[in-house]
Each structure stands twice: as structure tokens, then as C-alpha cells.
Amino acid sequence: MYRVVIVGRPNVGKSSLFNRLVGRKSAVVADTPGVTRDLKEEVVETDTGRFLLVDTGGLWSGDRWEKKIQEKVDRALEEADLVLFAVDGRADLTPADHEVAEYLRRKGKPVLLVATKVDHPTHEHYLGPLYALGFGDPIPTSSEHARGLEDLIEAIWQRLPVRQEESEPEVAAIRLAIVGRPNAGKSSLLNAILGEERVIVSEEPGTTRDTIDVPVDIGGQRFILLDTAGIRKRPETFVEELAIRRSLRAIGEADVVLLVVDPFQVGDRELKLANEALEKGKPVVLVITKWDLVPKEEAQRMRRLLKEKLAHLDHLPRVYTSALTRQNLERIFQEAVRLHELNHTRIPTSELNRWVGVWTSRVQMPNFKGKPLKILYATQPEVAPPTFVFFVNHPEFVTRAFENYLKNRIGEDLGLKEVPFRLVFRGRRE
Ligand code: GDP
């Protein structure tokens, strides 16, 4: 379903507009800013079709457009097809309005400018200054008097991107964390991905302090590069510990982690970051960068060396790339998509149990005082990471060796070895 998100500085009337469009009073509306605390979502039924309307009004904590709120709005905007930029049609534009405008311009989503509180046709004469925001004609509305709502809905449908088939499943954006030791080449890689002309962070001091997630479209697949501001931090201007904390946060929010590896600097750091990701259930692509610095005749030897150094991570896919020559840049994203899908593998219960039945009949199961461990039933209740629950007669009979064996089996037989799947053993009486 289309997602239409209302954004605007506090107190411009977002919630009232939301309620009017949805057609009932579901949110608490008050004149004091910050009364509604959460993101609200409701389906709006119109003659043309349905769309999901999202109100960001609840995210405000004060009356300023703060970076913290931007981050939350970021989230709401990720999946948005259209933004309704609400401005107060009765008041002068404020610096906060301009900040929101600037922010929305950076986001690059289609924006419809909506003037609120235009209770009377004569008020429309005063909307001229709103053109300064750079989003074209404001659409005058009044939630109080239910004015302009039909026009707004018509404009919404005009601006929504045409979809080939409404029933086509929506491909969600894949969230990528780019992590690695300082000087691994993360920010160079980011630049290579985004293209030099794309300025996403201002160089002025103080403006790069917050996280900036950048949506990109590569080969028709949407990605969100997490915390690009953190990636661009120069190590010398940045406290290392903070950098680590930021990476961990990005890993936590990611669907897939790109671990950038400098082939001349491989060690404990890389293993730690990879483990951090895998333990959180995030698949990892090893992105070996600066490959242009490796002479052709050395490449083979270098690959072998890296394989040895990263032996623990041998099961992870690796891409040899360079920010300079851009070799294999697209491969990184192909691998990310592949791992993302793999991490969402769902093995049907019947298939899983058939498979368990076949191999348990062949292997020697661990036993305790002559009583063997029995797997009674298996199921996969979760994806990302795929989680397999084995109901067994005695969970305490499960040895480390058996668990490792089972892990290898699942990795190989079910083709999941590249992603961090999990095993859980539960007791159940026979
Ligand atoms: P970050 O700290 O991980 O963001 O690392 P940077 O992107 O700032 O890169 C660190 C250094 O490696 C810089 O001097 C870059 O110019 C250099 N570098 C990064 N990627 C490449 C590459 O693909 N090829 C070459 N030759 N140098 C690179």
C-alpha cells in the first residue's frame, strides 16, 4: 500500500489534518505541542483507492526541529511514497519551517506542500510567502472547517508514483551498515557508491554530529546506508570509542553488514566486528577494498593470506573491490541482497522434519546412561536470522559436539552456512 507521511514543525496542525483525512478523531489533539507521543498510522479510504497515512506529530518533544527528531522522522520517511509537508497557513514562516524544508529536500522524496488552518477562502491570498519553501503550490486546507480536503486527496493521488500493479509485492529497502577499522576505506567506498557530486554532509563543524541514513537505489533495489555521517568522521577528529559505539548501533539496525577490510591491515578488529554482527543475527559481507594496490601477480598470494587470517570467517562471502577503480562495486550489493534473502529463508515444517528424520536415522545420537537423545520435532519459528527449534526428549543430552554437527549439517544441507542461523533445544516428553 502507498505510504503518505505528514511532516512539519510542531503545532502546525498535523494531527488535526491526520484525523480529518482519516475521518475520525483518533489522536489526542491539543494546542500544546508534543501531546501525541507516537507515530500514528491509519488507512485512508478514498474513491481512487486506499493509502496508509502516517503522522509524525507524536515524535516531537519540544517546539524545535531537533536532530533527534529528524532521526525518528528519517525512519518514518524510509518507506514513504509521498510526504505531506504541513505549514501553518495563518502564521509567518519560521526558521523551523525552513529547516524542515531543507531536510525534506535532502531526503529526495516527493513532497506536497499543505497549508493548514486556512479556514476561509480569503486567507488564501496570504499564502504567497510559502512559495519560498521551494515546493511549489501550497494546497490550502482547514481541518477545522473541513476545507480543501478533497483537493488535497486528489493532489495526493496525482503525486503518488504510478505502480505497475497494485498487488505486486513491495520490495522493502535493505538496511546496510558499513563498518571497519579506521582507515579501512569506508568513507572512500561510500563516496564511490554515492558518486562524488552527491554532497550529503556539510563540512561545517557541528553539522555532522548526527546520524544520517542515505537511501540509494542500485540496480532497482533500494538500500539504506546507515549512519553515513559516522562513516565520514575523520578518525583524528573523532573519539575512537564513540566510533565503535556508532558502528555497533548501525550493526544493530542493519539487515546486512558490510565489513570493510583493508587487505594490508587485517587482525583482531575484523574478527570482533564480524562476530558482533553475527551474534546479533546479521549476515556479513567481507568487502576487501584497496584491491588496486595489490599487484596482479600478488593477488593470488594475497587472497590466500587473507583466507588464513580470516579463517574463522571463511564461510562469509567476500568481494574484492576498490574505491579507486570501482571494480566489483555492484557485486557488493548483489551479495547483500543474496544474504538478505538467505537470512529470510523459511524452511517449511514438513520439509524440516523429513530432513531431520532422514539424517537422525543415519547417525549415532548422543546418549546418556544408555538412553539416546531423540529429536521429536523441529520447527523454524523465525527468520532474520533463521531460528530452528528442536524439541528433544532430554535437552541436557545435547552435547557441544552434537550441536556443532547439527549446525554444519544445516549450513550445508539447507544452504544456510553464509548466514547466522540459530539453534534452540527445548525439552518435551515423548
Ligand atoms: P575510513 O576511515 O575507513 O573511512 O577510511 P578512508 O576511506 O578515509 O580511507 C583511508 C585511506 O585509504 C585514505 O588515504 C584513502 O585515500 C585510502 N583508500 C581508501 N580506499 C582506497 C582504494 O580503494 N584504493 C586506494 N588506492 N586507496 C584507498
UniProtKB/TrEMBL annotation:
Keywords: GTP-binding, Nucleotide-binding, Repeat, Ribosome biogenesis. GTP 2 binds at residues 180-187, 227-231. GTP 1 binds at residues 8-15, 55-59. GO terms for biological process: ribosome biogenesis. GO terms for molecular function: GTP binding; ribosome binding. Residues 2-164, 174-344 form the EngA-type G domain. Pfam families: KH_dom-like (PF14714), MMR_HSR1 (PF01926). It comes from the Bacteria. InterPro entries: G_ENGA, GTP-bd, GTPase_Der, KH_dom-like, KH_dom-like_a/b, P-loop_NTPase, Small_GTP-bd. Coiled coil: none annotated. Associates with the 50S ribosomal subunit. NCBIfam families: GTPase_EngA, small_GTP. HAMAP family: GTPase_Der (MF_00195). Belongs to the TRAFAC class TrmE-Era-EngA-EngB-Septin-like GTPase superfamily. EngA (Der) GTPase family. GTPase that plays an essential role in the late steps of ribosome biogenesis. This is GTPase Der.
